[in-house]
Automatic annotation (TrEMBL), chain B:
Predominant place of localization: membrane
ABC transmembrane type-1 domain ranges (all copies): 85-276
Statement: the UniProt record of this protein carries the keyword Acetylation: no
Name of the protein in its database record: Carbohydrate ABC transporter permease
Species whose genome carries this gene: Arthrobacter cryoconiti
Entry's family note: Belongs to the binding-protein-dependent transport system permease family.
Coiled-coil intervals: none
Localization per Swiss-Prot or TrEMBL: Cell membrane
Length: 308, 291
């Protein structure tokens, strides 16, 4: 028997083969269908339903809904809501992604030095990424407390009064950005570290022999070689910042200059207003933004990797 | 050159200059990174053990003068904390067990069982990986609440059971398994179930552990869905219960109690992470090396 000839021995009829194929198909469905149905029902179906709900003027819990077509979108984009929500989302996203990437890269460069303890430090730095956003948010809320918070002590120590982090809408957003970067920079650091460790050694040595200093070596050699890693992190961080919810909700429960797309969609439906249709419209806007990001990622990925 | 060689001892591996450089450029930034990460968590634990008077004081005290579990007791009398914990354990255990099982079965089917539309199905699962659960919350709420799923375990668990992440990760791993092992089992007359449980699963330990741990962490920390689908304290999970605790007492006295609550939600995951971080980091950063 040759290596190619592994499935159907000669002499079996076509009927046998199709019976076998049918049996295989049943096995496939028995194994995979529960998961496929769950994904279809709780992931895909809601996507379509959201689009339908977004055309309704509908109070959550009420039996009456009025079809308003694109009314919710018109309201969102003309009432000033879009301007506020989109700019808050943009500031939060750009600042958190930029912060986590830059600090993550710096930490990765530190972790990449072969000093004892670097492995332990790598785990420590990654840890916040896996912790509950609600727990982390509460810890930082205490730290930012203007009277009893640890930060207010530090500020008082250098003769400054603590700002009202939570009550001032601009500072509330800054606070959220700091906490979110703290929680996510370890992820960027570990991914960057993997990227740094896979850089071709001979190129680095050549640059070193050419007499390039550490900074020039990094800026002109390592950083450009890391660009696939940077792009990967850019997209994944953009997606995760656009979906950030836990920290925002626990630190600013009713939204105070912190209404990002996702949080505003939550507040509209499950906050004070119960506006299901309007919330669905905001969700659709968020989904379109996410889709655009994912499209960018896929276009990049398909050039780089092959999922067989 | 000759000038430099006379100074050779200064540039040796253990020379003072070299040691100083290692400390300044290696250890100090490392230490700084660890402190920035660990200090807030240490502060949380220390504060949770302080007496209320120590927290609402403008005098800085780092260590609790009389370490006490008073805040934990207080938290448990303000809200049903033991119940939150039990709910989180139940939801996490059932949710992640089912998800892992579904991921193993689906990934096996996608790789080893013949079916006409396998590639299209895989792509649909891959795309689902990129749909954030948050945009699905409202329609799922309307559906589950309509069936009476408010404040029930099934209502909390069911909508999240489909697993795209686990399926994807295990499929990528199964593709790397040597086909010869499975062919040998097939020739021995082993059916799909036996091949799955006696051949594929036993040699896929690390990948399954990765999926299991990432799923456990995700279920334990899950917030937006349990927040929406529960409003009775006795059915809340820990993160939702903590929100209730945070809203129920806004006086400054409550910081110690809230830190006790934060410890209960954070420390179990921290322990799991410390013990098994290899799998968790690998699972969460997968895709980065290829991308």
């Amino acid at each position: 028997m040759t290596g190619m000839d592994k499935s159907i021995p000669l002499g079996r009829t076509k009927r046998h083969a199709s019976a076998r194929a049918r049996r295989e198909a049943w096995v496939f469905l028995a194994l995979a269908l529960p998961n496929i149905v769950l994904i279809a029902f709780f992931t895909y179906r809601p996507l379509l339903l959201n689009m339908y709900y977004s055309t309704l003027d509908w109070t959550l819990g009420s039996m009456d809904a009025v079809v308003v077509g694109l009314g919710n979108y018109v309201e969102f984009f003309t009432s000033g809501d879009a301007e506020e929500v989109l700019s808050i989302t943009a500031i939060f996203t750009v600042a958190t992604v930029g912060g986590a990437l830059v600090l993550g890269l710096l930490v990765a460069l530190v972790l990449n030095k072969k000093v004892p303890g670097a492995t332990l430090a790598r785990s420590a730095v990654f840890a916040p990424y896996v912790l509950s956003g609600v727990g982390v948010g509460l810890v930082w809320l205490f730290i930012f407390d203007p009277v009893y918070g640890a930060l207010s002590w530090v500020l008082r120590g250098i003769g400054l009064a603590s700002p009202q982090w939570i009550n001032d809408p601009n500072l509330a957003l800054v606070m959220l950005i700091i906490v979110y970067v703290w929680k996510n920079l370890g992820y960027c650091a570990v991914v960057y570290l993997a990227g740094l460790q896979s850089l071709p050694k001979d190129v680095m040595e050549a640059a070193s022999l050419d007499g390039a200093g550490a900074f020039r070596r990094f800026w002109l050699v390592s950083f450009p070689l890391l660009s696939p890693t940077t792009f990967f992190l850019l997209i994944t961080s953009l997606l995760s910042s656009l979906q950030a919810f836990d920290i925002i909700k626990i630190m600013t429960p009713t939204g105070n200059g912190t209404g990002t797309l996702i949080f505003e969609a939550y507040l509209q439906a499950f906050g004070a207003y119960n506006r299901a249709g309007y919330s669905a419209a905001i969700s659709v806007v968020l989904f379109v933004v996410l889709l655009a990001m994912t499209g960018m990622q896929l276009r990049f990925v398909e050039r780089k990797v092959h999922y067989s | 050159m000759s000038l430099q060689t006379t100074h050779a001892p200064r540039t040796g591996p253990l020379s003072p200059a070299n040691l100083a450089r290692t400390v300044v450029t290696g250890w100090l930034p490392l230490l700084l990174a660890i402190v920035v990460v660990a200090a807030p968590l240490a502060w949380m634990v220390l504060s949770s053990l302080k007496e209320p008077g120590e927290i609402v004081s403008t005098e800085l005290s780092v260590l609790p003068a009389n370490p006490t579990f008073q805040n934990y007791v207080q938290a448990a009398t303000t809200v049903p904390f033991a119940r939150f914990f039990a709910n989180s354990v139940i939801v996490t255990l059932i949710g992640s067990t089912v998800k892992c099982l579904l991921a193993i079965l689906t990934a096996y089917a996608l790789v080893f069982v013949q079916f006409p539309f396998k590639r299209a199905i895989f792509l649909a699962i891959l795309v689902a990986l990129m749909v954030p659960p948050q945009v699905a919350v409202l329609p799922n709420y309307i559906f589950v609440a309509g069936l009476g799923g408010l404040n029930t375990y099934w209502g909390i668990i069911l909508p999240g059971l489909g697993t795209a992440f686990g399926t994807f990760l295990l499929r990528q791993h199964f593709l790397t398994l040597p086909a010869s092992i499975l062919e040998a089992a097939e020739i021995d007359g082993a059916g799909h179930l036996r091949r799955l449980w006696q051949v594929v699963v036993p040699i896929s330990g690390p990948s399954i552990a990765t999926v299991a741990l990432v799923t456990i962490v995700g279920e334990w920390n899950d917030y937006i869905w349990p927040l929406i689908i529960t409003d009775k304290p006795e059915m809340m999970t820990l993160p939702v219960g903590l929100t209730l605790l945070a809203n129920s007492d806004s006086s400054a006295q409550a910081w110690g109690i809230l830190m006790a609550g934060a410890v209960i939600v954070i420390v179990p995951i921290l322990i799991i992470f410390a013990a098994l971080q290899r799998f968790i980091v690998a699972g969460l950063t997968q895709g980065s090396v290829t991308g």
